[in-house]
Write a structure and sequence with these properties.
Length: 301
């Protein structure tokens, strides 16, 4: 009988405050979807970092006739300079592997990497990318030592460290993640305020029933439970809608960004399921706790 009474009170409360409940569900769904999207972007960034940082290389581009570096004198690096540069690189303790890449090889790799953007490929011609040495480091953090050893060397045009490029790229993705989380925080605040208003309105509408329950000796927990469960159920429904939005987010945002940016590691469904469960639980707990705190301040029992 007690369970039946609690369920009946929950249904009455949700039905009487239908407009507020729908608003709460929508707000929670948007908040949890944004929160989950931020977590998905973070998971994608961390997964990509762990993949790419193990493959970071320092590219040492050699002088070519098209070089803008004055020390190249519009001349290609000689074979003697190439052999000396390679020998000096192999002697450095920070270097794990040295590979020579010709202009033709660089052009083929460029076409393969940017095959999804044909306009970019068509604007580049074979020979625009000079010969280079691709240097794999034992520790990517020690790229400065290799760069300093190669800069201003005869035959060297420029030294590019891929870690600096990746760091800037991941900072952009990190900014997108924090933007989603900040918007989610604003939505969470709105959800908390809506929960408070919904609970206060529900408690006001049922003040007579609450007074009778107090007179017959009902416990505080028994009186509070329908109101708390109303908020929790609204949070659960909002969380389920957010789960659907997160699935769309994976297809429409995360996977699309991963394909455009050519991430080698795609975000798995296991991560999506884990983030979805966390988002739903967070939405339920948020609404339940907000209901409980509102009752303590408003419902004097």
């Amino acid at each position: 009988m007690r369970v039946q009474f609690v369920l009946q009170e929950i249904w009455i409360g949700l039905r009487r405050n239908l407009t507020m409940t729908v608003s709460l569900v929508i707000t929670v769904a948007i908040a949890m979807a944004l929160f989950g999207t931020g977590l998905l972007v973070r998971a994608q960034v961390e997964s990509s970092k762990s993949y790419w940082y193990d493959k970071i290389e320092v590219s040492i581009f050699l002088c070519a006739q098209t070089s803008s570096n004055p020390q190249c004198n519009k001349q290609d690096a000689t074979e003697q300079q190439k052999q000396q540069i390679k020998a000096d690189l192999e002697k450095l303790p920070e270097v794990a592997k040295v590979e020579y890449e010709s202009k033709a090889q660089a052009w083929e790799r460029f076409k393969e990497r940017f095959s999804t953007t044909p306009g970019f490929v068509q604007s580049t011609r074979e020979g625009d990318i000079p010969d280079s040495f691709r240097v794999r480091l034992k520790d990517p953090e020690k790229h400065q030592t290799v760069a300093q050893a190669m800069l201003a060397r005869p035959g060297v045009d420029q030294v590019i460290n891929e870690k600096q490029i990746l760091d800037r790229f991941f900072r952009i993705l990190g900014g997108l993640q924090w933007a989603a989380l900040v918007i989610a925080l604003i939505q969470v605040i709105a959800a908390v305020l809506l929960v408070g208003n919904t609970v206060r309105l529900s408690a006001f509408n049922r003040r007579r029933e609450t007074g009778i329950m107090r007179l017959v000796g009902a416990s505080n927990t028994y009186i509070q439970m329908p109101f708390i469960l109303e908020g929790a159920i609204a949070g659960l429904i909002g969380g389920l809608f957010a789960a659907g939005l997160l699935v769309l987010s994976k297809f429409m945002l995360v996977d699309r960004v991963a394909s455009q940016m050519q991430f080698a590691s795609n975000l798995g469904w296991g991560t999506v399921v884990a983030v979805t469960i966390v988002s739903i639980c967070f939405g339920v707990l948020l609404c339940a706790i907000a209901s409980f705190l509102t009752l303590r301040r408003y419902l004097k029992i």
